[in-house]
């Protein structure tokens, strides 16, 4: 796939405050990219620079190889769906969906035909004469998507469009977004702070923090093998231990931690300060041929989560979170031994 969107040496400064550090970012044609990060991380500013709602302080923006850095939104092959949907309450759904085509001076009959096609695409066939006030939140979100897709953008920009929906509806719309993206073949760039949402829909996640890209890759790699301490902590729960490399043993490192010495795979200089990270589901109650011992501890707290029990286990001064199978029948106060596969341990140096 060729690059559809490319940011080259782009940065953004607002009133002397750097919101986006100088960075490069490329997105492939037909790729579903999620910009993930906390509030104020710079992810929406990145989206706005792609869409033309904010001009970069430095650098260049390209779409399909053509520079669009100085072009206004209406001149770019993009469309944007905002969290508030911005539908026109005085218009029918058909006219809402056809609005962008109207602005492009498409003939009325043609644009209404296209609007009907788009409403069908998002599961609202026959709704064209209804008013916005007659819709649920999920239906309004679909109309906003239909309006954006009606102009056949090469790049669809989504600024936290699911944030106002309840959990069940949000999950339903996540699935529909993925189906819509696959059918359209457009590049989708989606902004969210919801890690589960990002992992559910993305081909590639870009983790953003303080205007910098902390990590970037497929959801499974970013979750299981994060590239930075921030990514490890932000992408769901993680057990993180600080330590220092005391010895290199072949391709392994001996790291002194609050749980004692751990021998784990990795490459770092002797004496280097590092962190090791393990996801709660990677902690187990029985050893395997490839496992390392984390020590013996006591279950302090436990909550039933349906598919598993979420437990706090204290080993010395360290509080670890594990997701134990319900069949383990753990109870608060019980002593347990914890293990983890050596291959699951992530070594973090930044």
UniProtKB/TrEMBL annotation:
Keyword flag ATP-binding: yes
Which GO molecular function entries does the Swiss-Prot or TrEMBL record give?
ATP binding
SUPFAM superfamilies (alphabetical): MOP-like (SSF50331), P-loop containing nucleoside triphosphate hydrolases (SSF52540)
Respond yes or no to whether keyword Nucleotide-binding is given for this record: yes
Gene3D superfamilies to which the protein is assigned, alphabetical: 2.40.50.100, P-loop containing nucleotide triphosphate hydrolases
InterPro entries, A to Z = AAA+_ATPase, ABC_SmlMolc_Importer, ABC_transporter-like_ATP-bd, ABC_transporter-like_CS, Mo/tungstate-bd_C_term_dom, P-loop_NTPase, Transp-assoc_OB_typ2
Tree of life domain: Bacteria
Q: Which UniProt keywords apply?
A: ATP-binding, Nucleotide-binding, Transport
Entries under Pfam families matching the protein = ABC_tran, TOBE_2
Domain called ABC transporter: residue spans:
5-235
Q: What protein name is recorded for this chain? A: ABC transporter ATP-binding protein
